[in-house]
Amino acid sequence: MSLVTEIAILVLAGFVGFAVISKIPNTLHTPLMSGTNAIHGIVLLGGLLLMHEAQGWFEHLLLVIAITFGTINVIGGFFVTDRMLEMFKRKPEPEPETETEVAGDAEAAEEQP
Amino acid sequence: MIVPAVFLQSTNFIDACYIVAFSLFIYGMSGLTGPRTAVRGNKIAAAGMAVAVIATLLTKGIWHGAATPWLIVVGLLLGTAIGLPAARRVHMTAMPQMVALFNGVGGGAVAIIAWIEYRHHFGGDYPLKSEIPSLFAAVVGSISFWGSNIAFGKLQAVIPSRPIKLPGQAILNLALFVIALGSVVALAAGTHSQALFIVGVLLVAALLGNMVVLPIGGADMPVVISLLNAFTGLSAAATGVALNNTAMIVAGMIVGASGTILTNLMAKAMNRSVPAIVAGGFGGEVAAPTAGDGERGPVKSTTPDDVAIQLSYARQVVIAPGYGMAVAQAQYAVRDLEKALEGKGVRVLFAIHPVAGRMPGHMNVLLAESQVPYDLLKEMDEVNPEFARTDVTLVIGANDVTNPAAKNEPGSPIYGMPILEVSQSKSVVVLKRSMASGFAGIDNPLFYEPETSMLFGDAKQSVSEITAAIQAL
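Structure tokens for the assembled complex are given below, as produced in the milestone run.
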């Protein structure tokens, strides 16, 4: 790919990012941060792509660390964001007491495995 | 149907997978525009990541070498073994630390990858098209790694959260920045020195990361965390350019855009410029002239029973939470209070200042955890007109974001910062541990106003006592 193409992708992605992210409400800013943490875990791909070129124990070690870091980002980021987002509930309309109880129980049951 | 391996390993197929992956990232993120679609959005983005990783694992030649498959698997398993339990167990009150740490490891991975790339091209065949983004990634990734670790240390209280400053810090930071920039230019211009890369780029950037975050006070943390988030994203995008990987470019730019937007929002909410915050928090010096407590009138202190009576006979109550609520882990007690008041027919709203807490949206997540419906949480602009109609405002562990000095004392260090205008409500009750000032040591005139009364003690216990008293009425 030529440098110009890559810069074009970079610039367009920047604009798309601004357009999408600026619509996200304050309420969800913490999940947004942890979600984007997960997304920048994509650097994991760099570690995967370079491993076979590594020479010597030092480079191998560094790349294992890079893959580990990237995986922590991806797995940890998406899971913790999911956990957080599941907690956001609207005010239940008809019977507030029971509604929230049920929702809470269902969630607890889901988290068991 | 058997798909031939040749097809799966072809560059076209893999590039197509990357396009699918980044489309899913963008689509998933657009789901975050509302709490109802957000859970699905996050899952879509995660699916995009799975597509990107699988496509990469299919790439021809990446399994080459006897040890390679094992090392890749070890890295993936190790990352999962650390990331998964951390994500499952972390308390919502500890989210800022967690985000700082995740930010840091991302930056660290970027810096390592740039280093390996540089080592492989050591000797001179590195095309500038890849070398420049790679050097950029090394500097920014390294700053992000060390800066985030310091931020983590401060949030976890391993390092004191007050600003730690050296004499001549600003000049030192500038010098470090110039050295890093000079090293990058020298390397790009053709100096092939392994030592220059390690010392001039990685090490200087590491020092810079430490130096930039150490002088920043606790309340400036939302800005710093957002800024580091943007840094990691941009460095990931640069790595994508260096490695010709479209998924990395797009993903990195989305994160960069998100971090930049949040940084600006946070800085605006404090009425301070990002460079001013990075140049060092307002610590020590400004505290001295305003510290004299005696000159202001006496403060009125109250009891949980009195507050309970006040609240029960109110029509509308606004709760303004701050970092103190997180420290005292009072979010569940606050939820119980809200329910008790609702039972009495009182309308309860929550006033959320954008920089309340230690990261963007910190209060919202804590209150969501304790199952306060998110439609009761109001943003600053939405809630400020409500205060005039409010009978009682309950300030729980918030200080500077309610400080009227920001509006009417031009000499105050926080003058100009938009605040929650709590003093417009008929009465204000401030829950506070003691008369100690906020993080910057700025006195809060709100406490001395005639309609304000103070309820001293642990926020969680005070709130529980108020709730018990309301239920007993």
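Residues 29-111 of chain A form one domain. Chain A has one domain: 29-111. Further analysis is deferred to the final report.
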